[in-house]
Design a protein that fits this description.
A: mainly alpha, 2 domains, B: alpha+beta, about 60% helix
Chain lengths: ~240, ~110
């Protein structure tokens, strides 16, 4: 276990952040550690770091409070939007007589905007709440997707329709990793817009839980933006 | 108050001075205590102490003996010095009446 062993050590060390990986592998080389001992050391560090990270509430919220239930609900909503699109728009596009849009069209547009809003805000909060565990959250998002894709049996619609929510969600995750929070005005606009678009479903008692399970990230963004503004205001007040 | 291993790490880093980095601190701890110091314990403690503002770290030079990899340099902050001093004073105070401490000071006289 020499060259192959060190390859394994370097592969495991990829679970560490780049600078830490550099320092740790350098230390192990300098100390002339054997590959087996080095592997035990690196694994020990990885486990300790993961235990430290997961001792906070943030990764649990991102993974089990958002990624897992969110992807399940958004897949269902993606399917619902796809079916509505197929029912309302596709036949009109196929007929040569032109586009005739019924009253359901506005609701469809509203649902498409809602799907994008829910996916983006969910992704953003997932990325910003726990950056170090974003891979675990991503795995927990994709597991229900794989499960549902495997069991999808509707012939009239492509199984890829289940994944319509993914592009805005991935975009949201990327933005969430870059920024800790968004501006209060934008956050409020998003949250109010998303909540307003759920109004047509308010008379349906069954939709309350999924609506709020998908809408809370938007209000979480408002809360973090407001808190950021207050702390910034406090700093200004202190310096003045 | 800082913990025992945190004190050992800060003291080792302070003893090495400007050239304190991961491998050197680890070697110092192992030679002083006679016990193996794992990379995991060392780096998680360094990170925790840095978050508490007791240490400052930065990436240093790369050397051929490290396979061209950079060192993680460590410096004890004034707050770290205070914390280590507080721990040391507490150990001295609590040890005053202990037989090994009194014998030690007696033999020294």
């Amino acid at each position: 276990m020499t060259i192959a062993g060190w390859s394994v050590v370097e592969a495991v060390a990829r679970l560490l952040e780049p600078e830490e990986r550099e320092a740790v592998l350098g230390d192990l080389t300098e100390a002339s550690e054997g590959a087996w001992q080095a592997l035990v050391d690196v694994l020990g560090l990885v486990v300790r770091k993961q235990v430290t990270v997961w001792s906070s509430w943030r990764p649990w919220l991102a993974s089990f409070g958002l990624a897992l239930p969110g992807s399940l609900l958004l897949m269902g909503f993606s399917l619902s939007v796809s079916q509505a699109y197929q029912r309302l728009i596709a036949p009109a596009l196929l007929t040569s007589t032109g586009l005739r849009l019924g009253p359901g069209f506005t609701l469809l547009l509203c649902n498409i905007a809602l799907l994008i809003g829910w996916s983006w805000t969910g992704g953003f909060v997932m990325g910003s709440v726990s950056r170090r565990t974003v891979r675990a959250s991503a795995v927990l998002s994709f597991l229900p997707c794989l499960f549902c894709l495997e069991r999808f049996r509707v012939e009239s619609i492509s199984r890829l329709c289940l994944l319509i929510f993914l592009p805005p969600a991935i975009w949201g995750v990327r933005r969430g990793l870059q920024l800790a929070q968004i501006k209060l005005r934008s956050a409020l606009l998003l949250a109010v817009g998303i909540t307003a678009m759920t109004i047509p479903t308010w008379d349906n008692r069954g939709s309350w839980i999924p609506n709020w399970a998908l809408s809370w990230p938007a209000w979480y963004l408002v809360a973090t933006a407001a808190r950021g503004r207050i702390s910034l205001g406090g700093k200004h007040w202190q310096t003045n | 108050m800082i913990g025992e291993f945190e004190y050992v790490l800060i003291t080792a880093a302070a003893g090495i001075g400007e050239n304190a980095y991961g491998a050197a601190i680890r070697e110092e701890i192992e030679s002083a205590t006679g016990r193996r110091c794992s990379i995991g314990a060392l780096y998680t403690t360094i990170e925790r102490l840095e978050k508490k503002g007791l240490l400052k770290t930065w990436m240093g030079e790369a050397t051929p003996q490290r396979g061209g990899r950079s060192k993680r340099m460590v410096r004890v902050t004034p707050k770290g010095v205070q914390a280590a001093k507080g721990f040391y004073d507490a150990v001295i105070r609590v040890s005053r009446k202990a037989s090994w401490a009194t014998n030690r000071s007696g033999s020294g006289l």
